[in-house]
Amino acid sequence: MTLDPTDRAIITATQSGLPLVSRPYAQIATDLGLDEGDLCNRMRAMQANGVIRRIAVAPNHYALGMTANGMSVWDVDDNRVAELGQRVGNLEFVSHCYERPRALPDWPYNLFAMIHGTSCDQVEALRADVAAILGDACRGNDILYSTRILKKTGLRLRRQKG
Amino acid sequence: MTLDDTDRLILNTLQEGFPITPNPFEDVALQLGITEAQLLSRLKAMKEARVITRFGPFFDAAAMGGAFCLCAMSVPERAFDDIVATVNAYPEVAHNYQRTHDLNMWFVLATETEAEIAEVAHEIESETGIKVLLFPKLQEFFIGFRVAA
C-alpha cells in the first residue's frame, strides 16, 4: 500500500500515542487541519490493510511482573512453518514471531518466537509448550536470553527522500 | 502504583483494541460500566506511573517506510566492549542486545532502503573483521501477546 502525505502526517501525529481526551480523533484532525470524518476513514483504511496493526494499550510488562524473556528459536520443517508459526504467534505469552532464513552451518533455526514470563523457570515451561505444538515438525531448538541491552533507540518514521 | 480491579479490567480490555468512533472513551467506559471521566483519569494515572508504556495505534514498521533486518555476530569476549562501541556508532543500528549464545550480539538495522541493509552490514564486517549474519523476516505471524493484569 502507498501512503500519501496525509496518511504519513497522521502516522507522525499518532506514533507516540493518542491524546487522553474525550474526542481524541477530533483533536488530531484539528491539529492536522483535517476533517474528523476524513481522519477516521483514513485510519480505518490503514487498519484494514495492516498499516495499523491495532489500536491498543501496551502495558509495561516489567511493571506487571513479567521480567523474564527469551528469544526461542526453532528448526521447523519448511512445509509446515507457515501453519505452525501462526499457532505459536497466537500464544498469549509470545510477543514476536517470525520466520527468518537459516544461516547454515552456524544457525539451523528458521522460526523465532519471543517468550515472556514472570521467571526463567516459567519461560522454560512455556518453551516446552511451544515444543509440544511444533512436535516432530521441529528438528532442534535453542533459547537465547539477553544479558545486556547494548543500545535501544525507538524506530521512528523516516523522512521520505525526494 | 497499586492497581485495583478496575485498572486491571481497563488494561485487559484495551489490549484487545480501541474503537475509531467520535467518542471512543465513552464507548469503552460504557462497556466497562464506568464513566468516561473515570476511564480517562485512570488511563492518565497509569501512563504517568509507567504501567502503560504506550496507548494508541501500533504501526507496521515496514509500512511506515524503510527497511529492517535482524543481524547477529559472534564477538570474542575480550573484544566485546570495543566491538559494541564500533557497532553502536552506526546510526542505522536501532537496538542491540548481548545474548547467551556463540552468536552473542544481536541488533536490528533500520535503513531507508533494502539495499542499504547489505551495505551497512558489509561496512560493519569490514570495520570489525567479524561476519554479520542477516536474518530478515520472511514471514511475520499474527501476535496474540497479552499481559494478564
From TrEMBL, chain A:
Database matches in Gene3D superfamilies: 3.30.70.3460
Source taxon at top rank: Bacteria
User: Its annotated pathway?
Assistant: Porphyrin-containing compound metabolism
Instruction: Using the record's annotation, list all stretches that form the Siroheme decarboxylase AsnC-like ligand binding domain.
Output: 64-151
Q: Which reaction does it catalyse?
A: siroheme + 2 H(+) = 12,18-didecarboxysiroheme + 2 CO2
Has keyword Transcription regulation? no
Looking at the record, the residues that make up the Siroheme decarboxylase NirL-like HTH domain are 7-53
UniProt keyword annotations, A-Z: Lyase
Task: List the Gene Ontology MF annotations in alphabetical order.
Answer: lyase activity
Q: What is its EC number?
A: 4.1.1.111
**Which protein family is named in the record?**
Belongs to the Ahb/Nir family.
Which PANTHER family does this UniProt record tie to the protein?
SIROHEME DECARBOXYLASE NIRL SUBUNIT, TRANSCRIPTIONAL REGULATOR, ASNC FAMILY
Which protein, by its recorded name, is this?
siroheme decarboxylase
- Organism listed in the record: Roseovarius aestuarii
UniProtKB/TrEMBL annotation, chain B:
Q: Can you give the residue ranges of the Siroheme decarboxylase NirL-like HTH domain? A: 7-52
Q: Which SUPFAM superfamilies match?
A: Winged helix' DNA-binding domain (SSF46785)
Lyase as a keyword of this entry, yes or no, is yes
Q: For this protein, what is any one GO molecular function term?
A: lyase activity
**Reaction it catalyzes:** siroheme + 2 H(+) = 12,18-didecarboxysiroheme + 2 CO2
Enzyme's top EC category: lyase
Record key words, sorted: Lyase
Q: What is its EC number?
A: 4.1.1.111
A Pfam family this chain is assigned to: NirdL-like_HTH
Is Lyase one of the keywords? yes
Boundaries of each Siroheme decarboxylase AsnC-like ligand binding domain copy? 69-141
Q: Which PANTHER family match?
A: SIROHEME DECARBOXYLASE NIRL SUBUNIT (PTHR43413:SF1), TRANSCRIPTIONAL REGULATOR, ASNC FAMILY (PTHR43413)
Protein name in the entry = Siroheme decarboxylase NirG subunit
Q: Which organism is it from?
A: Roseovarius aestuarii
Upper classification of the source organism reads: Bacteria, Pseudomonadati, Pseudomonadota, Alphaproteobacteria, Rhodobacterales
